[in-house]
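Give me structure tokens for this 77-residue protein.
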Amino acid sequence: MSTTMLLLIALAGVLLLLLMVIKAKVQPFVALLVVSLLVALAAGIPTGEVMKVMTAGMGGVLGSVTIIIGLGAMLAG
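Here you go.
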């Protein structure tokens, strides 16, 4: 995939994230997870690898814990 296409995908991801948080009032953590998933798929990452890439991007070992804590904090608050 070309560099230009990857930059356009990233730009679309940022715009979608802003739209979800500002206009649709989606919780920022959930919006970030959804946009991360969509950008990963659009960038051509194989479906089976997406969660591995997302967890690695969130901090390796702490990535899976961050998702649980983030969702728990959102539900509690």
